[in-house]
Amino acid sequence: MIRAMIRSVIFLVLLCSVGGYLFYLKTGTWPIPGQLLKSSGSSNGRVDLRRLSEMPSLNSMKEDEQPEKINKWQDENDVWHFSNE
User: Fold this and answer.
1) Is residue 82 part of a domain?
2) pTM confidence score
């Protein structure tokens, strides 16, 4: 009896998860609004998570920026040193 109830609960959780994900794929919004997904800039209070792939990465550089030159050298004790000067 308890096994059947546990299996039913697991099945319902999986069914709701898959259904929610399919709803998200079709509409771009989650079916259940939550505090984590709310944004002040959105008209309906939901964030389209598909647009996150369009955001630049945190370590990206602008095209006109040059990478900083790093110098390395080894002293007489065979210790390596690194510096940007």
Assistant:
1) no
2) 0.36
